[in-house]
Backbone:
DNA sequence: TCCGATGTACTCATTCCGAGTATAAACTGG
DNA sequence: CCAGTTTATACTCGGAATGAGTACATCGGA
């Protein structure tokens, strides 16, 4: 991004899925999210960011959504000092792209989410890191029942279920407990970038449940298993195959292309495509109010 | 708010429910949402806004959530001209308060949402305004099947169901079709304030389904019917009484105070209170992924 | 004392969801 | 070419949640 006197900074969480891994675009060897000043020459925030991303990656951004706006003083509660840029506004966005090969000068790299948040990947087993974290948080909560309740709820301790959407809240609790700087608990990032990434992951994990955004991450045509693997990568959970397929075709979101996948190891699978012009789509039923007739 | 050279402006959608009407705090005779510059003297955006609101209303804000951040050029697509303040950032918030009597100098007024969006109140009947709007939109869509699909989906035409959450998208479609300036379609506001209000209503209508924010609008103790009437006011829908009650006590969110309501016309009702220290609460079941065992 | 309004406890059918089973069709290594 | 592995796809079945409706209780007031 060209520099200049800018009233605001834009920060992007750019996500893609490849090799069954959810990935995020980073700069500086995985230490920073892409960011730059808001250019008033463009028409709007969205357009400004979209243009910059497409210049950087060589790919169009399928989906772009605003995440959160911070003031500088929101951003790093550790250092109480006032910087020269005090009062600057940072606006963060979540963007989804289909491919991850950057056209840049080799600087951008796509890291797996789970290298920053190793405790969030529950696809194969409960991560060792999570066990250690809950142990340490147990000590931190000690005789404080309120802390204990928060830890149990956020990290699925005891009979509580693991809720994959609470990425941000888990990170913030770990921050409070002083665990985020431990190197075994994920790759560090500069400033508050890891927290912004957590915000994006939380948002996306929630969104795939009631909106068909997953398809923004899929190629033109795909098999049902590929779709399932993508959802699993994003949510960090393993899904039940027959039930997943049932839900997908109940939603009526995809249609058969007529073609079959070339052998990926087993029996060839049908190739599907996303039904365009489906704007009324909701992935799952969505919450309901108990309506009255009439 | 004191004026000054500010990098950003804060705008608040302050909501309350009284007399079975969802209300929003306005200035200038209902023409503007409260707003002011972001004061860097405070610690963060949230705190800055919270302090200002409490000074204005004399009441604490129970719940405060960021809505959306606009650049000036996002804000009024009609006038293409560049103003002196081009590039200014506006950050909007949704706040919930329990009472609506302003301590101010008589300037703030609490108007019903539905005076700005008369077509959004479906509690008693389908509003006449909605019928006229869909008629006009039918003409606007004319021979364009894509437009027709959008209109049908957003406004519940034909066999499509009315979706109360789509307040913002409906308003934006009406804007596109040139209907928002018609005086019979709701009270006007200055600039894009009506669109920001629509954003807040959309967010709140979605939120009450999976989060216990409604209780931020309720008094200390309340009857089940009062709670139902509040949800109905917010959603603009009429709910099924027995099923509403079933859901509420399945969620285990409230507890009996032991007291009874003084006669409100019929048999006295139990008074309940919100169970504090319920952070794991979700109003409804929430969408689900088809999980796999172990 | 009856009526209207509200409060509260049920029933019943349908749909949705979690869990599991069974079979089909490819590839692989001996 | 046969056995075993991997993936694809079609079912079944029970339990939970949801939509819709019924029955009855208890108050104030005409």
Residues:
């Amino acid at each position: 991004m060209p520099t200049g006197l800018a009233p605001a900074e834009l920060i992007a969480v750019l996500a893609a899925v490849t090799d069954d891994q959810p990935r995020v675009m980073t700069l500086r060897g995985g230490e920073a999210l892409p960011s730059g000043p808001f250019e008033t020459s463009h028409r709007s925030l969205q357009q400004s960011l979209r243009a910059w991303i497409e210049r950087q990656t060589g790919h169009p951004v399928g989906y772009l959504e605003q995440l959160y706006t911070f003031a500088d003083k929101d951003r790093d509660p550790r250092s109480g000092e006032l910087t020269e840029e005090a009062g600057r506004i940072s606006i963060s966005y979540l963007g989804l792209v289909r491919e991850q090969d950057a056209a840049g000068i080799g600087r951008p790299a796509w890291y797996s989410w789970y290298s920053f948040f190793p405790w969030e990947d529950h696809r194969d087993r409960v991560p060792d890191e999570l066990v250690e974290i809950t142990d340490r948080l147990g000590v931190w909560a000690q005789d404080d029942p309120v802390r204990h309740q928060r830890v149990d709820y956020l990290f699925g301790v005891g009979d509580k279920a693991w809720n994959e959407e609470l990425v941000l809240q888990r990170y913030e609790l770990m921050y409070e407990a002083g665990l985020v700087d431990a190197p075994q608990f994920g790759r560090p990032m500069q400033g508050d970038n890891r927290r912004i990434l957590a915000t994006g992951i939380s948002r996306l994990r929630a969104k795939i449940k009631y909106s068909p955004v997953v398809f923004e991450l899929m190629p033109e045509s795909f098999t049902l298993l590929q779709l399932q693997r993508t959802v699993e990568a994003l949510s960090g959970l393993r899904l039940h195959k027959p039930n997943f397929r049932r839900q997908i075709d109940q939603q009526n979101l995809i249609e058969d292309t007529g073609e079959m996948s070339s052998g990926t190891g087993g029996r060839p699978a049908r190739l599907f495509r996303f039904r365009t012009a489906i704007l009324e789509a909701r992935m799952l039923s969505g919450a309901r109010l108990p309506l009255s007739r009439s």
Summary: Residues 223-225, 241-242, 245, 263-270, 288, 290-293 of chain A lie near DNA strand D (CB under 10 Å from a C1').
